[in-house]
Every structure is written in structure tokens, then in C-alpha cells.
Amino acid sequence: MIVTSFWTAGTPYEAEAKELVATLDKFGLKHDVREYPHPGTWAKAACLFPLVILETRRRHPDEDIMFLDADARVTTLPVRLAGLAEEGFDAGLYWLPNSPRSVTPDKRELCTGTTWWAATPTADAILEAWFVECRKPETEKLLGVDQEALQLLLARFPQASIFELPPEYCWMDRISEMHYGKREPVIAHGQASRRFRKQVSTP
User: Fold this and answer.
1) I want to staple 171 with a disulfide (CB 3.0 to 4.6 A). Which of 27, 33, 96, 185 is the partner?
2) Residues near 111 by Cβ (< 8 Å), separated by ≥ 6?
3) CB–CB of 160/154 below 8 Å?
């Protein structure tokens, strides 16, 4: 497995990504984390997620990929991911329950800060579709942009075998604790968008 992430040039996310890399190195996790040009708005930067994963796939075609947002910190080895490909899963995704921001009737919100992708044709097809959706002008108007686009398009892939990541793999401080109580995260997210969204809105 290889871990990928990115930061946009000239934004505070560079420092976030460096801290992420430090935690990946601490646990000996192979990674491919790169700088991307700032596309001009926060929404367009969020829509780089599928592009980053697809380009990582092209560089590492036989590797399973874990994508982490730049503000993520690995606090312990993500051992549950090790056998997912052998178990036949195409992707590993996390949904926050009972969310007012859900775009589906089940009231669950797909969170894209941590995602896992097997080296399978179905996974690649989802990623390609996600990339296309994120390039549509109407997608940029969505509140959650990248994650809402992915959540909505999953219905087009009934053949996909998707593993639901435990909350500890996409832990979001007070939000997660409100739903699950106190737990030890595997991957903790600092939700930097709450601090940096305005700064990332313009280059």
C-alpha cells in the first residue's frame, strides 16, 4: 500500500502536509505526497482529490492507495487496511452518521479525508467518474464539493465492493466524539479547512 496526499502551492497546507509525512515516516508507511498548483478557489482545490489519486495510480499501478487529506495525522498503523484487497474490496470509505449535510436519504455523509482504493478496474472506474464529476461547473456549487460528488455517483456502481471504514480511520475530534464517545484514533484529522478555507480561496 502507498499513501498519497497533496498540498496546493502558496497555501498553509504545505506545512500540514509536512507534518503528515512525518507521521507516515514514523510508522514506515510508503508515501507519494506532492505539491499541486493552486487552482484558484477552495472548491477547485478540494476537487483535486480524485486527480491526485488517479495520478498516484499511474505512477504505482499495482499498489493499493490510501488517500489522506493534508491535515491528517497517522497515530498508529492502519492494520485493518492490509487485507482489504485480498478480501475482494474495491474501496474503503467512511460515512458520518446522522449528518445534516447528507445528500442521500440515509442521512449519512461521506467524508473523503481518508479513502482507500484497491488496484481494481472498478476502483479505477469510480475514480475516473469522480474526476469527471468534479470538473462540472455545477459541482463547485455543492457545499461539500468533492465528497458530495463522490457520494452521489456511487449509485452508478452497484457492482463495487466497498468496505466501510471504522470511525477511528477518519477521526474528526469533537464531531467524531459526539457520535462515538472517546476513542483512540488511527488517523486523526485536524479539519484544517475550517481555518484555511478563506486563505485558499484565492492564490
Assistant:
1) 185
2) 94, 95, 96, 147, 170, 172
3) yes
Domains of the chain: 2-201 (3.90.550.10)
Q: Cell numbers for 148, please give them.
A: 458530495
pTM value > 0.85 = yes
Cα(26)–Cα(22) distance, rounded to whole angstroms? Answer: 6
Q: What is the pLDDT along the chain (203 residues), one digit of tens a residue?
A: 999 999 999 888 899 999 999 999 999 999 999 999 988 777 788 889 999 999 999 999 999 999 999 999 999 999 999 999 999 999 999 999 987 777 778 889 999 999 999 999 999 999 999 999 888 776 555 545 788 889 999 999 999 999 999 999 999 988 898 889 999 999 999 865 544 444 544 44
Burial 50-84, CB ≥16 within 10 A → b, else e: bbbbbbbbeebeebbbbbbbbbbbbbeebeebeeb
Instruction: Give Cβ neighbours of residue 136 (< 8 Å, ≥ 6 apart).
Output: none
